[in-house]
Amino acid sequence: MSTASRPTVAVAFHSGYGHTAVLAEAVARGAAEGGAEVVTVPVDTITEEQWDQLDAADAIVFGSPTYMGTASGAFHAFAEATSKRWFTSAWKDKLAAGFTNSGSKSGDKLHTLQFFSVLAAQHGMNWINLGLHPGWNTSEASENDLNRLGIFLGAGAQTHTDHGPDEVHKADIATAEHLGRRVAEQTAVVLAGRTALAAVTV
Ligand SMILES: Cc1cc2nc3c(=O)[nH]c(=O)nc-3n(C[C@H](O)[C@H](O)[C@H](O)COP(=O)(O)O)c2cc1C
Question: Thinking of the domain 8-201, which architecture would CATH place it in?
């Protein structure tokens, strides 16, 4: 983990058909804008070097499409493989967040985000929520609002199943960027607090 206040944020994601990958890039972009060093890790092809990158990160943002009401099978395989880290509490006190994408407006996305938050809790990680009020919930609001799907736990996106990755909704991309920025900023606050605490306890 970083000792200075510049955080390292890892984006650990799976995308079967490229839509969620667009959001992973947006989270990474937002985190970089927020001052973090960023690594993206496609979990279905994860290497030993990338496991090391996750171990070294201050925050890990989990991302997956919603398949059958939960994260994809590939993401679940990755989650099971993290049990090696669980045994040694290797990820304890890292920060965590999550994003998902589905074909339907709801599509049971919340369940995927809840799965991510439980995975984080099992590791003793501290969950960072989206930190946005819902958009698109008044007569004057628009589908182009940030957080247009009105999710609090993480970033959610909806992509029509006959649309390609280049048609992921711009508001959902912006919402994912927001999440990345927020994770970077909140992680920097925690790192600064740890540094300050270490200074007064020596
Ligand atoms: C096996 C499978 C299961 C799916 N299950 C859901 C679902 O439960 N809810 C939903 O709204 N969309 C569901 N979808 C649609 C995907 O979430 C949607 O197409 C998404 O954009 C795919 O993201 P990806 O390109 O990153 O894989 C499913 C798609 C597949 C292939």
Answer: 3-Layer(aba) Sandwich (3.40)
